[in-house]
Backbone:
C-alpha cells in the first residue's frame, strides 16, 4: 500500500515537472515603450530602447530553438501593464519573459537581478539568471521573489530580468554595445532552453506548482559581493530606501528600491 502511495506521489511530481517543461510558446515583454521611457528622470540611455533591442534579438534565437514567440510590443509604443498580462494569459502553454534594465540614483549600483512571483516560475528564474550572470561582466544581485504587477497577475510562469544598470557608467557602456545586447539575448535564451533540467530537479522541493507560498520577506542581496565595511556604510541608506519603497509599493504595487520595473 505504501508503495502505491509513493508511486502516486512520484507520478504527481513527475506530471507537475513535465507540465512546467511542456511550454511551446514564449511571450516576450520588452519593458516600457512610447512615452514611458523607463529608468529614472534624466537618465541618458533610454531603457525602453535597449529593452526592445534585446527582446527583438531574443525572438529569432528562441524561434530557431523551436519556440513560437509572441511579443507584447515590437516597436516603440506604450502598452499598458494590464494589456501585457492579458496577452500573456491568453497563451496558457507559454512562459512570460519581461526584459528590463535597471536604474538607481546611486551610479555605483550595478549587477544583474532576476524576479519571479509564483512558485512555478522559480526554476525558470533561476535558470535564466544563472545563464545571464554567467555570460555578463556585471555582478550577481540574485534571484528575488517580488509581487510586480506583470509577475503577480500572470497565470503562466513569468520572469522579469533586469539586465544591468543604465545609470552605472560601465554597464550603460555595455548596454549600448550591439554585441553585448546580442550576448544578453543569447544568455536569456540559454536559460530558457536549459530550464527543463532545473524544473524537474527543483519540483521535488517545490512540491506543487499550484501552491502560493505567500509573499516572502524582502532579502536585500545587493551587497553580497561587497566588503563588510562597504555594507555597513551603505546599510543606513538602504534602510531609508526600503521604507520609501514600502510606501511606494502600497500605492503602485510595482516599484522597486532601485528599479522602475513593472
Ligand atoms: Zn524597466
Residues:
Amino acid at each position: 500500500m505504501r508503495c502505491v502511495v509513493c508511486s502516486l506521489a512520484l507520478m504527481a511530481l513527475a506530471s507537475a515537472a513535465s507540465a512546467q517543461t511542456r511550454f511551446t510558446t514564449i511571450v516576450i515583454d520588452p519593458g516600457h515603450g512610447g512615452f514611458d521611457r523607463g529608468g529614472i528622470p534624466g537618465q541618458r540611455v533610454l531603457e525602453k530602447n535597449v529593452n526592445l533591442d534585446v527582446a527583438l534579438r531574443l525572438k529569432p534565437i528562441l524561434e530557431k530553438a523551436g519556440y513560437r514567440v509572441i511579443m507584447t510590443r515590437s516597436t516603440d509604443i506604450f502598452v499598458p501593464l494590464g494589456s501585457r498580462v492579458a496577452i500573456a494569459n491568453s497563451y496558457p502553454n507559454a512562459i512570460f519573459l519581461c526584459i528590463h534594465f535597471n536604474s538607481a540614483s546611486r551610479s555605483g549600483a550595478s549587477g544583474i537581478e532576476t524576479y519571479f512571483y509564483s512558485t512555478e516560475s522559480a526554476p525558470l528564474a533561476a535558470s535564466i539568471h544563472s545563464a545571464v550572470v554567467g555570460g555578463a561582466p556585471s555582478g550577481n544581485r540574485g534571484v528575488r521573489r517580488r509581487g510586480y504587477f506583470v509577475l503577480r497577475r500572470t497565470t503562466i510562469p513569468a520572469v522579469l530580468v533586469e539586465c544591468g544598470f543604465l545609470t552605472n557608467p560601465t554597464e550603460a557602456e555595455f548596454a549600448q554595445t550591439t554585441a553585448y545586447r546580442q550576448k544578453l539575448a543569447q544568455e536569456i535564451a540559454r536559460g530558457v532552453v536549459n530550464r527543463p533540467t532545473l524544473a524537474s530537479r527543483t519540483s521535488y522541493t517545490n512540491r506543487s506548482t499550484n501552491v502560493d507560498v505567500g509573499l516572502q520577506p524582502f532579502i536585500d542581496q545587493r551587497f553580497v559581493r561587497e566588503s563588510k565595511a562597504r555594507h555597513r556604510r551603505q546599510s543606513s541608506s538602504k534602510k531609508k530606501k526600503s521604507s520609501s519603497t514600502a510606501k511606494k509599493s502600497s500605492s503602485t504595487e510595482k516599484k522597486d528600491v532601485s528599479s522602475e520595473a513593472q
About this structure: The first strand starts at residue 25 and ends at 30. The pocket of zinc ion is lined by residues 31-32, 38, 47, 100, 260-261 (CB under 6 Å). Residues 8-20, 198-262 have pLDDT under 50 and may be disordered.
